[in-house]
Amino acid sequence: MIAEIGHFALILALAVAVVQSLVPLAGAQRGDAAWMAVAGPASMAQFLFVGVAFAALTHAYMVSDFSVLNVAQNSHTDKPMLYKVTGVWGNHEGSLLLWITILALFGAAVTAFGRNLPPGLKARALSIQAMVSVGFLLFILLTSNPFERLDPAPFNGQGLNPLLQDPGLAFHPPFLYLGYVGFSMAFSFAIAALIEGRVDPAWARWVRPWTLAAWIFLTCGIVLGSWWAYYELGWGGWWYWDPVENASFMPWLAGTALLHSAVVVEKRDALKSWTILLAIVTFGLSLLGTFLVRSGVITSVHAFASDPGRGVFILGLLTVVVGGSFMLYAVRAPSLKVGGLFAPISREGALLLNNVLMATGAGTVLLGTLYPLFADALDLGKVSVGPPFFNSVFLPLMVPMVLAMAIGPLLAWKRGDLPGVLSRLKLAVALSAAVAAATWVLQGGSAGPWWAAGGMGLATWLFLGTLAEFAERVRLFRSPAQALGRALALPRAAWGMTLAHAGLAIFIAGMTASSAWKEEKVQTMKVGDTVEVSGYAFTLAAVRDVEGPNYLATEGTFEVRTGGELFATVTPEKRTYRQPPRPTTEAAIVGTFLGDVYAVIGDADPQGGGWVTRLYFNPLVPWMWAGALIMVVGGVVSLSDRRHRVGAPTRARGSRPAAAKA
Amino acid sequence: MTRKRRRLYFLVLGLLAVSAAAALVLSALSEDIVFFFSPSEIVDAKTPTEGRRIRLGGLVGEGSVVKEGATVKFDVTDGAHTIPVVFTGVLPDLFREGQGVVTEGRMEAGTFQAAEVLAKHDENYMPKEVAESLKKTGHWQGDGTTQN
Q1: Which CATH class name applies to B35-137?
Q2: Which of A59, A303, A363, A538 is found 20 to 30 A from A51 (Cα to Cα)?
Q3: Which of B121, B125, B145 sits opposite A163 (nearest CB)?
């Protein structure tokens, strides 16, 4: 019964979304306030109905109602409650329901917090949002109904893929979707602005908090996924340039560019049509990501089983959304008024450089991700494009961007003084060169990879450049006494930028070190054997069988010694789940300031020669997670800035024609 | 600076970035992409595969998996032909006899020296290339990709 209520609620939500996508838009075109006012209640109703559907499915999972096909296929009574709930989005139908729930949530949030929005812009944006809803609701109802019944109901379910029974992955999809779907806000506002033919700093102030929130969520989602791959898959790696990973990374790149170009629109009233284009592209890439993950058109090392029929539907949706938007952009963008002028060497110029490089980077990732499809279609053979391609194409493009990142914030708006800035960064240049040289010497010259020194130097450069900008802002060296007071009085957005840029610098250091100097040893070990990795001696002390709530495991106990002293005792496991019967690897990781000690136990050697073990030392990996966390904190601090508060800004220069009419 | 000059600057910057990217992409495409082969295609030897980094995909031969310490030997087959594979390391959790597999490495004297055996998240998942090459040799059974 409850499942039927859920299904019915989805149909009602579709009906509401259809009304919301047509009436307010028509009202805004005609200047009819009553029609425009439909958008608010409609978005709330849509959220209510979708929320009921989501609650109904969650209920079915919590009480293990196996007469619902989706629950029977993906849950099991033995599962801990946490994974029963997160199992809701651990499958195709449920994850789409989560997607549409978040979309409706954002729509409702615009209504709740957007009281100061001009009615015309709000009505149009909510209509566009509802059009996206209609597409996805149709998709769910026509191809992926989560409430389909199963008769007779089985005694128990088939269980959730044990790889997904993990806290890191349990919350990875919701964050990723909050990011993807969050960019739909920027998209809706961009299309609304195109229809109105007006983009101004006030528009950018409305769009920035949504974009920033989406960026924060997407960053969290990507990092959670990467962290999960690092400790759960037991390969000691954290990024594989796999199509599924690229699918989330492309919108992140475009979204980061959008975040920065929106600053230029807000502060300088320039780069307007470029920002609109970025908003469209970012959401388009989010949809493309959904398509790539859900259609299975590209072989991915961690692909999910999928259904090509559904892929065709999403591809159609993608074509309509992106094609329609580009067409509207082509027609309307030339009529947007060109705003403030600036010299090439200026803060705007630096932000533009960042944008161009980010967009080009996203383009190369897109090309590499889709190349196997093109090659197959053009009969060039079956190819796979892996890490070597992306490392040799994407990373070089990011080098000039990081170089410019340290300089850009120090340049003045409109016209900057590059030689002046460089002379102020003399110390940073010298120290970065020193770090690069020290890295080269410490790794034994050409004994390590040639790029490691460059990467560490670049990280130092960005970190010091960011600190220099902050020090200058608070006049740390000119009047140190008042610096603290000035720092506290700085706008939170300034703090946010400093934190995010410094976080990226720390991330780059971690990324470089872990790629350059990772040490890995694979061997069979008997109890009592010792293997040394990067100065850590791993002794296999014991192997025993343990039993968990829904799995059996082989647990190895390693005593790790460094310099003869016991450093840690770690217990990696190889688990075999009961339902579904499937093995997983649980790596044991001990983090230190300088890196992770990482141990994995594998199968027993059939000849009785012990167990296969993999032991790693992954240098500076904790720096990566710390750096990413600092970036996210920077985003949150910036979002808490008074000027970014959702709905806070009011249009500065008079009211607009549409608003006046209303 | 006039509008025209700004537009020019924008264009030059964009062109520079795109041409740098294009140069990088072209050089990477000639060196860094990996072609997929089925066992039959390797045996046919229409394209020389010896010593090149390639992917080999098919089914893991029934009864072919032999573990010697950390080294694993197994056969990859598409029904028509079989290639012996040697791999040192821990196999992905979902590696099983009779199931689809994709490995990456080099052919050396008739044996495939695998550097990687790719993992899957889902045991019902069959790599697309493997499914197609199995269909070609007529060893395709059922449609393993539509589960879920």
Answers
A1: mainly beta
A2: A303
A3: B121
